[in-house]
What we know:
A hairpin with a 2-residue loop joins strand 3 and strand 4. The strands form 2 sheets. Strands 1-8-7-2-5-6 form a 6-stranded parallel beta sheet, with helices on both faces. A two-stranded antiparallel ribbon has the order 3-4. The chain has 6 helices and 8 strands, in the order H-E-E-E-E-H-E-H-E-H-E-H-E-H. It is an alpha/beta fold.
Amino acid sequence: MFFRLVMGAAYASALALAFCADMSRRVSLASSGFIGPATAEGPQRFTAIVLGCRVNGDDPSGCLEERLARALALYESGRVQRLLLSGDHGTRGYDEVNAMSAWLVERGVPQAHVFLDHAGFDTYDTMVRARRIFQVDGALIVSQAFHLPRAVYLARAVGLDAVGVSADPPDGSACAGSRVREPLACAKAVLNVWLDASPKFLGPAIPITGSSRISFDRP
């Protein structure tokens, strides 16, 4: 009986691994050709969607700072005109998006050109909300290279004309170790698309072409 249980668990694990690997291939194929260069001569869009990551109080983690630095470079080069910062602000004590905004505004980005998505709890929610709430048509997606295939897959699946731009610095990313969870995350991404899942929160429209003030929760 014990042997059968062990063999059953091993078989189920093998099936799960195979499923995740297949979903990862689907994501990579669907996003292939939509990952652009990080140079000033790359593709342009009106909006850059900057994906949130861990913060320590008001200080961005190394991983998040890489994304913010790339977004700042895109803005300064004229490749984008608006920055949609999407992250986890699910509790009063944890706030990715205001930390992201402060970092960019301190470096010269006008606050009027920064939009905050407080309910970007995962990449799927971010992309659905970008399309439905912020009415983004096309965007440059800013994240690390390991994350971009999934992010671009989800963005394009919900109707965004999206191209990914890597935030990795030349000497490597501070969060490269996070790639180990990508197969499972890709499986979740594909299932969300297949099921047309709803994000945790939607809400009234905040057009990216209008005023960003309504997206702020601070003066």
